[in-house]
Amino acid sequence: MTRIGFYRMGLTHPTVRACFQGTYEAQVRGIRSQGIECELVWNIEEASRCDVLVFSLGGKQGQIARDVLRQLPVPGVFYVPPAVLWFDRRFFKRLGNRVLFAYGTDESPLTASQYATIGIDYLPLPFGSDPKIMRPIECEKVFDVALIANAGSGEGRLAYVKPLVEHFGAERCLIVGQGWQSIGVPEQTLAWGASACVLYNAARVCVNVHADEQYSDPESRLDANNRLFDVALCGVPQVDNAAVITRRYFTEDEVVVAHDPREWVAAIADLVGDTARQERLAHAARSRALREYTWDARAVPFVTAVSKALKARGLY
Fold first, then answer.
1. For a 10 Å CB count at each end of the chain, is N or C smaller?
2. CA torsion angle for 297, 300, 302, 307 (degrees, to 10)?
3. Alpha-carbon distance 106 to 136, whole Å?
4. Minimal CA–CA distance to 279: which of 169, 136, 178, 105?
5. What is the pLDDT of residues 251-263, one digit of tens each?
């Protein structure tokens, strides 16, 4: 049986680990649901027990991958940023046939075509979520609106969130994240997991703001965030700002979308006052997410790609 190891994935950085380790652990559980041995590995000794290693790239992560692959005779799978942000032809050329394939959350034509030019398959793999963690909870709706996001992780978010807080008032909005001090929200960091689920469920409506660069040029970047799927599984109605992304996954009967900030706030206000519609949207979006957007479901194309690549190299 093939054993897959996710090597560090940038999680040695405290902030990255706090925010994303739970997400990787959920992905690992999804792969295990397909009957494949899989784990997060942190050092060479643990990595040596694996048949395939997965590395994240960007920044200094490439050097880590090269160092490990020099010591271990195993192939690698590479989690890559959108090609418009990072694409290193020389890095992959040096690794040669040690590369099984690349994958990432970006679904734009540019990323797939860039990897095709160097003979590497690219698997678009959007985020998933874990319905055992992100789930409906019976609790009081303390807030009208909730958002868990950092202001500085992408351009354009403040243009939506500032009028949102002005309309509802700070006491009716739960905004958790870094970089919102200019609108009176103290800096906070919340790890992905059960605490986030509780906060989502404490609101009548959850909002999602994709950063401008995630969707403004769909030919070069089309990159859904994990919040889109987490909120759906929590069974809370959601209003998003990026139709070109959201409509790839959810219909208008599942997630509300408005692009103009004023229209976005108005759509949220309408939904906050309509309990029946909240329930319809939440139920429909959760039903779809349970069918299609769990990490168990996302594991199927990933495991298939690993098996296909290994067989093509006579390794499986």
1. N
2. 170
3. 28
4. 136
5. 999 999 999 999 9
